[in-house]
């Protein structure tokens, strides 16, 4: 069985749309866990109220003009606390997990994976951002890619922009430690102009975190996500640990399509300036991650961040400059939050 794990933080509307697409999945052998990170917008009550509706309105707009009209299963909702298990939960159910606090992206996903791995039926995890909608064959195609050969450890999807569903957001990403920069593979392309799978596998550094599919055996081999990051760089850290452990390889299921709003919950975007919160964690975590690559690369990251601060001031964006400055201080001092 597949355990699909969504993290919700003050974003029940996005989560409902994602769940509506999961209720249209052709795969039947899954359970969805919505890990609520201490939301302050009555997310849990709103999600349960949606689940109780007999015939809720179908989402509209892109990409719903290409997704099925009707559900293939009802919304069977179950409410749980994080210390409780799911072994008694029927396949196809949606489990709303109340954590009572904001554990960050990594911490919430770890809660979900630990809950799911105690269920002997669960063989695979699918970590899926809540601001997504997925095509009905997505779970089946990710599973097929995962079991295609034993060395496959983590499988990514073809991410498409939610607002522009014919444009690729990425099919994996490259990280260059010398320039301290990341690049989404296929960004802005159409599905017909993407590199081949073999070309992608040769250049991929990490599977993009909006959709990560892995067998439980991968989790057992490399351990849970690093919670020190809170937001961002968790997938790079996992990829690094995977490579160092020699525990398998990463690939992408190009026929598994996920439409992603990219950062709607906390305000990060490829197309506009990120929120102060995003800027803080992206810059702080850049230093935390590059430390694992070595002191030299961490020093390059620090210098690059130092140059960003005056650039934001020149652009009359003092709030961004201050967020980046706080991030650098936090990274060097060991402070966790903004």
Quick rundown:
This protein has 338 residues and is of the alpha/beta class. 37% of the residues lie in helices and 21% in strands.
Please give a structural write-up:
The protein folds into two domains: 2-260, Spore Coat Polysaccharide Biosynthesis Protein SpsA, Chain A (Alpha-Beta Complex); 276-333. Helix content is 37%, strand content 21%. It contains ten helices and twelve strands. It has helices at residues 12-22, 43-52, 104-117, 138-146, 197-203, 216-222, 234-245, 276-293, 295-314, 318-333; strands at 2-8, 30-36, 77-81, 94-98, 124-128, 132-134, 152-161, 168-170, 173-176, 181-184, 211-215, 249-260. Strands 1, 2, 3, 4, 5, 6, 7, 8, 11 and 12 form a ten-stranded mixed sheet that branches. A two-stranded antiparallel ribbon has the order 9-10. Helix 1 (12-22) links the parallel strand 1 (2-8) and strand 2 (30-36). Helix 1 packs parallel to helix 2, helix 8 packs antiparallel against helix 9 (295-314) and helix 8 (276-293) packs parallel to helix 10 (318-333).
């Amino acid at each position: 069985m597949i355990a699909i794990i969504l993290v919700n933080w003050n974003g029940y509307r996005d989560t409902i749309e994602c769940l509506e697409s999961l209720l249209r999945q052709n795969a039947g052998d899954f359970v969805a866990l919505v890990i609520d990170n201490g939301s302050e917008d009555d997310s849990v009550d709103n999600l349960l109220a949606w689940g109780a509706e007999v015939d809720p309105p179908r989402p509209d707009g892109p990409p719903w003009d290409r997704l099925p009209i009707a559900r293939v299963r009802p919304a069977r909702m179950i409410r749980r606390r994080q210390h409780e298990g799911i072994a008694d939960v029927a396949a196809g159910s949606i489990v709303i997990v109340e954590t009572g606090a904001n554990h960050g992206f990594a911490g919430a996903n770890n809660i979900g994976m630990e809950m799911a791995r105690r269920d002997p039926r669960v063989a695979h995890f699918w970590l899926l951002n809540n601001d997504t909608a997925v095509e009905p064959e997505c779970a089946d195609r990710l599973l097929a890619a995962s079991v295609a050969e034993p060395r496959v450890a983590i499988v990514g999807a073809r991410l498409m922009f939610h607002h522009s569903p014919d444009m690729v957001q990425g099919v994996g990403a490259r990280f260059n430690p010398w320039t301290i920069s990341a690049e989404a593979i296929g960004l802005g392309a159409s599905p017909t102009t993407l590199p081949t799978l073999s070309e992608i596998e040769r250049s991929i550094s990490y599977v993009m975190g909006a959709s990560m599919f892995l067998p439980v055996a991968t989790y057992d081999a490399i351990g849970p996500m690093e919670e020190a990051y809170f937001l961002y760089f968790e997938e790079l850290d996992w990829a690094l640990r995977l490579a160092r452990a020699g525990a398998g390889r990463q690939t992408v299921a190009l026929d598994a399509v996920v439409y992603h709003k990219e950062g709607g919950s906390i305000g990060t975007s490829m197309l506009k300036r990120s929120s102060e919160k995003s800027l803080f964690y992206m810059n702080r975590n850049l230093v935390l991650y590059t430390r694992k690559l070595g002191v030299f690369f961490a020093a390059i990251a620090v210098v690059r961040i130092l140059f960003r601060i005056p650039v934001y001031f020149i652009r009359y964006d003092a709030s961004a400059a201050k967020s980046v400055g706080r991030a650098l201080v936090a990274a060097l001092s060991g402070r966790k939050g903004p």
